[in-house]
Amino acid sequence: MFCSCARSKMTQVSHHPWGEWPGQGTVDLWVVQSPQVKVEVLTLGAIIRSVSYRGNDGQMEDVVLGYDNLEGYVSDKRYLGAVVGRVANRIAKGRFVLEGKEYQLDLNNGPNALHGGLRGFNKAIWLAAAVEGGVQLSLTSPDGDQGYPGEVQVSVSYTLQGEELTVEYQAQANKTTPINLTNHSYFNLAGQGVADIYDHQVSITAQSYLPVDDTSIPTGEIREVKDTPFDLREPVLIGPRLKELQGPGFDHNFCLSSPGGPWTEKRAARVCHPASGRVLEVSTNQPGVQFYTANFLDGSIAGKCGCRYRKHSSFCLETQNWPDAVNQPSFPDCLLRPGENYHHITRYTFTTV
């Protein structure tokens, strides 16, 4: 039963309890719906559970991978739909030095730390409140959380107007700390559960990308995309392009701005599924976007309606700072200092051609 409902500019916002995580608390499901798009958000991990919109055939289709029940999200190890932090992506050897002190994080991705640690923001139950056109979720990350310094107050809001979902992240800290927040939704514009994304077309407005070592840590080089398989400035079909890559697929940071450049909102990426006509466009004020083609899904996950999620069944466009920036002085600054406000905005526009 819905326990609240608000209307704003044709956007309906409602919520109800979705499940109980024993020992942790109640997880609520929020529904934010415009005439064009329906978005479901969980208070666990500030997770986008679903995004549904029509294709050219007029049928509503859910285009985000996920689970039918809370247990799936509690046990999930692939960050489906979640906000990840305190630091998204990888930190080399889980180690960094800040103001003369060395910090050692738990290693949860081979020799590296990934997406905030063993119990990052994706496993926290956030507080939620209705805002105009959507929902705002907030979280307090205590000093020492997962090994990071300082208490951090974090909020993320999801607001929907027509075809556009705006995600706005803010954070303040009482000690200097690295921060890098993103959403880790896996998309398939043909519909979640469809076998692969080989028939999707992608373009990313990046002149350069970050090569990585064999543990997916950037080498420090900023390499031009020109004359490489990473040149996605014009739309390319994902399936054939994946065959040109060494390795299992895309899992790379595309550079949307230069180190030291202003963090202004810009178009980042566009993905089109010609068969259904569905299009996803992404803009952001972040200096990078991690394009990931679900290389490590292996069919072991039973998702919505029992669908088995396999390699290349979806894609992520994780708008964020550059990976391992805390250890790479030439990369954009990822430190949040007392008195400063971290502000990240990303917009997803869901349309048809």
From TrEMBL:
Keywords tagged on the record: Carbohydrate metabolism, Cytoplasm, Isomerase, Phosphoprotein
Domain of life: Eukaryota
Catalytic residue list: 184, 318
GO MF term (any one): aldose 1-epimerase activity
GO cellular component labels: cytoplasm
Residues the record lists as binding beta-D-galactose: 89-90, 184-186, 251
GO biological process, one term: glucose metabolic process
Protein name: Aldose 1-epimerase
Organism the protein comes from: Maylandia zebra
Species lineage: Eukaryota, Metazoa, Chordata, Craniata, Vertebrata
